[in-house]
Specification:
The protein is built from no helices and 39 strands. By secondary structure, the chain is mainly beta. It has two domains: about 240 residues, Glucose Permease (Domain IIA) (Distorted Sandwich), CATH 2.70.70; about 240 residues, YVTN repeat-like/Quinoprotein amine dehydrogenase (Methylamine Dehydrogenase, Chain H, 7 Propeller). A hairpin with a 4-residue loop joins β19 and β20.
Length: about 575
């Protein structure tokens, strides 16, 4: 039996609210919030008598837990007036509202069907349900779909084969409501086999805790939430917030993990100088260790060419490229080792290609993309190896390739379009050769990660010209050919960064500043061939700007750290554990 995501996202509920099993059959879900008086399923100051809108879960989005095609649907049935009161259409003879109310019945690839029932009126998209009538003639006139002969559904809600909309895992289906045979706002969801037997869902990508100890969160790892688990609350997100820590003011910032759970932040401080800080990250908390400073820096990037030896690539006050190597000691002290200089630049990025070799990608004085390969010795000394120049750009994102020895550049061209270019870096003399390339649409911000077996999938998150966040996958061949595969959109943003987690398969976490100015994290799973991008649960934090993200896996656990400037302009780091 496959594992399923939950059909909601934690960030769609008010703070301090969580999902739980309700009802006696084990197939109903509702939401509760934790108050000083305990757990309550209604919002603060409910109406008297209680209205549908008083329930915490009412109006929360519902998402598909798996791919499939819609075989039965209804979308415009009136809701029950309030909890505990049925609509007359459920009392009439014959009944004119289906038992499931507004619903979708989705046929999966394995021949089972999943029912999402009691949805809010008009919340199911017309693209998923072609029926626009409020009432049906006879809700008890039921027939079995040919594919599932032991499952009977109202004849008038059946969609004929060949004319059935498809849904994708993670796709929004509607909103929690109180329609049909429902005693109050909730989601009824069950999975039924072709023989009519109901089989429980095994869940993952989320967290659970007991109501009596709601701070002790444990990951779902293919587990069932059954009828007896009514004291279990569910955080429907792969992301669990573990610890926060704050620092002083800053401008730009980048991060890199060294020595497993040691994080180094490289930032431009309030005086405009480069400042490095080493942090120890236990699974639950941060500890600040050593720090070091250098001169003025207006662009900053960071890489690790050798174990515990990091390199910062910066744009100096004079506008020239400068590389500095630093030793991160076991006690967290940071020691400056060596420097090297390059020519005039306006944008800077650096990445490790292999042990001892880094590549800097810069926008040079002509406004063109320029790549330079450097050898970094054991003591941190630099030896410039080779360089190559390409066309005009305005922004750069850079990632190492594990498909072949080299790098991938994601650039914004002079006409504000996304372009990906694959570059091979020779293992003999570090010479750089341009391989494949691909063009994307208009973009203002972008971030790049590699995923999948051998890094053959490129994941690019961009802010397009309309301000929309788009996460795009591309395939990367051993010859450097780049081919666009899939795109997933996720609303308005003003900043974006992306992290893949070492050891966490095809999961990526996108950090962005949403249209409300909040730090928003979105988690995606990428299919093995990269042709499907499914959005899973995410998380919301407070007001944040200057956003960055980095990921790490350690001892079978997975973490991302987000950094940014809080509402007061001060550095804030947040540690999130990921159940990927």
């Amino acid at each position: 039996m496959a594992n399923y995501i939950f059909p909601w996202r934690a960030e769609d509920l008010p703070a301090g609210s969580f999902w739980f099993r309700s009802g006696s059959d084990g197939w109903d879900f509702s939401a509760q919030r934790l108050t000083g008086d305990g757990w309550n399923r209604v919002k603060d100051a409910p109406q008297n008598p209680e209205e549908n809108s008083d329930r915490v879960c009412y109006g929360a989005p519902v998402y598909a837990v798996e791919d499939g095609e819609v075989i039965s649907a209804w979308r415009r049935a009136p809701e029950n007036p309030r909890p505990g009161v049925s609509h007359p259409g459920r009392e009439s003879v014959p009944k004119t509202i289906p038992r499931s109310g507004n619903h979708l019945l989705v046929l999966g690839r394995d021949g089972s069907v999943i029912l999402y029932a009691h949805l809010k009126t008009d919340s199911v998209p017309e693209s998923l349900c072609p029926f626009n009538a409020e009432f049906i003639v006879d809700a008890d006139d039921k027939v079995p779909p040919p594919e599932v002969p032991n499952v009977k559904i109202p004849r008038e809600t059946l969609l004929p084969a060949g004319n059935r909309p498809r849904v994708r895992r993670g796709q929004k289906l509607g909103l929690v409501g109180n329609s049909g045979a429902s005693s109050g706002p909730h989601l009824h969801m069950h999975r039924e086999l072709a023989n009519g037997e109901k089989e429980p869902f095994k869940h993952d990508r989320s967290w659970k805790a007991e109501k009596a100890n709601s701070s002790n969160w444990q990951p779902f790892t293919g587990e069932i939430v059954g009828p007896d688990d009514k004291d279990t609350v569910i955080l429907a997100s792969p992301l669990l917030r573990r610890d926060d820590i704050t620092g002083g003011g800053f401008d730009k910032l980048v991060m890199h993990f060294v020595r497993s759970l040691r994080l180094v932040t490289a930032l431009q401080d309030e005086d405009g100088n480069l400042k490095l800080i080493a942090w120890d990250l236990s699974p639950e908390e941060f500890n600040r260790r050593g720090e070091a400073s250098a001169g003025r820096a207006t662009q900053i990037s960071i890489a690790e060419p050798r174990s515990d030896l990091i390199v910062t690539a910066i744009r100096e006050a004079e506008g020239t490229l400068k590389l500095i190597s630093w030793r991160v000691k076991a006690n967290g002290e940071i020691e400056r080792c060596a420097d090297a200089s390059g020519g005039p630049v306006s944008k800077v990025s650096v990445v490790t290609v292999r042990e001892g070799t880094i590549v800097t990608a810069v926008r040079n004085s002509s406004g063109n993309l320029k790549l330079i390969a450097w050898f970094v010795s054991l003591d941190g000394e630099f030896d410039r190896q080779s360089e190559v120049e390409a066309g005009a750009i305005t922004e750069i994102a850079l990632s190492a390739s594990s498909v072949f020895p080299g790098v991938i550049t994601a650039v914004r061209t002079g006409d504000s379009k996304l372009k990906l270019i694959a570059w091979e870096v020779s293992s003999i003399d570090d010479s750089i050769v341009r391989r494949g390339e691909a063009d994307g649409g208009m973009t203002t911000h972008m971030a790049l990660a590699t995923r999948g077996s051998g890094g053959r999938i490129l994941v690019v998150s961009v802010r397009d010209s309309d301000g929309e966040l788009r996460t795009i996958t591309w395939s990367l061949s051993a010859q450097g050919t780049i081919q666009r595969l899939a795109t997933e959109s996720a609303g308005k943003v003003s900043e974006v960064d992306v992290a893949g987690i070492f050891g966490a398969g095809r999961t990526v976490v996108v950090a962005c500043r949403d249209d409300a100015g909040l730090l928003r994290l979105l988690t995606y799973e990428v299919s093995a061939n990269g042709e499907m991008v499914s959005r899973l649960g995410g998380a919301l934090a407070g007001t944040m700007t200057k956003i960055a993200i980095a990921g790490i896996s350690h001892s079978g656990r997975h973490f991302v750290v987000t950094a940014g400037a809080d509402a007061g302009g001060n550095l804030k780091l947040i540690n999130w554990e990921v159940n990927p």
